[in-house]
UniProtKB/TrEMBL annotation:
<feature type="domain" description="HTH marR-type">
    <location>
        <begin position="25"/>
        <end position="158"/>
    </location>
</feature>
<keyword id="KW-0805">Transcription regulation</keyword>
<keyword id="KW-0238">DNA-binding</keyword>
<dbReference type="InterPro" id="IPR036388">
    <property type="entry name" value="WH-like_DNA-bd_sf"/>
</dbReference>
<dbReference type="InterPro" id="IPR039422">
    <property type="entry name" value="MarR/SlyA-like"/>
</dbReference>
<dbReference type="GO" id="GO:0006950">
    <property type="term" value="P:response to stress"/>
</dbReference>
<dbReference type="GO" id="GO:0003700">
    <property type="term" value="F:DNA-binding transcription factor activity"/>
</dbReference>
<dbReference type="InterPro" id="IPR023187">
    <property type="entry name" value="Tscrpt_reg_MarR-type_CS"/>
</dbReference>
<protein>
    <submittedName>
        <fullName>MarR family transcriptional regulator</fullName>
    </submittedName>
</protein>
<dbReference type="InterPro" id="IPR036390">
    <property type="entry name" value="WH_DNA-bd_sf"/>
</dbReference>
<dbReference type="GO" id="GO:0003677">
    <property type="term" value="F:DNA binding"/>
</dbReference>
<keyword id="KW-0804">Transcription</keyword>
<dbReference type="Pfam" id="PF12802">
    <property type="entry name" value="MarR_2"/>
</dbReference>
<dbReference type="InterPro" id="IPR000835">
    <property type="entry name" value="HTH_MarR-typ"/>
</dbReference>
Length: 175
């Protein structure tokens, strides 16, 4: 068969027909996993030119929503991750001057976390990039449907917190 007559291969990134496959009972799981991977890849690509990564800014976003002086343990719990997995990311954030660790006054073994001014500036930049991507990714979804989508996702997250995943030590995800 010559190059001219060879049939075009389908785009491997095109959505597969999961509903018509032997895996039809996991159509939501498949789509959420696929969307998470695609969304993260797009966000990583948009963050790269300004020297940011999702792994680095995920804890920063949570810290922006938590009170100043949040403990590493509380941040790990909010992120649904192990404290040990978070330490390496916090080391990098501290080295970059974005986060400051201070010893806890009541527990010498614990550290409290504070976002620096540079960290706040970078968080604003992260927010602008992520918000722009969200608008792009939500194109074609009517506003009233996006509010419903957020509510459904919140319900799924509540369900996930009530029923830990099998095999996960704490039911959480890793960073």
């Amino acid at each position: 068969m010559s190059e001219r007559t060879r049939p075009q291969a389908p785009d491997p990134r095109a959505l597969l027909a999961i509903d018509e496959s032997p895996f039809a009972g996991m159509s939501v799981t498949f789509r959420i996993m696929r969307l998470g991977a695609v969304w993260r890849t797009r966000l990583e690509r948009d963050l790269k030119p300004v020297g940011m990564t999702v792994a680095g800014f995920r804890p920063m976003v949570y810290l922006m929503m938590m009170p100043d002086g949040t403990s590493q343990r509380d941040l790990a719990a909010a992120l649904d991750t192990d404290t040990s997995a978070l330490v390496r990311v916090l080391d990098l954030l501290e080295e970059a001057g974005l986060v400051e660790r201070r010893p806890d006054a009541d527990d010498r073994r614990a550290n409290n976390l504070f976002i620096t001014e540079e960290g706040r500036r970078k968080c604003r930049q992260f927010h602008e990039i992520a918000a722009r991507l969200e608008v792009e990714m939500m194109a074609g979804v009517p506003g009233e449907n996006s509010a419903d989508l957020v509510a459904w996702l919140e319900q799924i997250l509540r369900n996930a917190r009530q029923s830990p995943s099998v095999g996960a030590p704490d039911g959480g995800e890793t960073t």
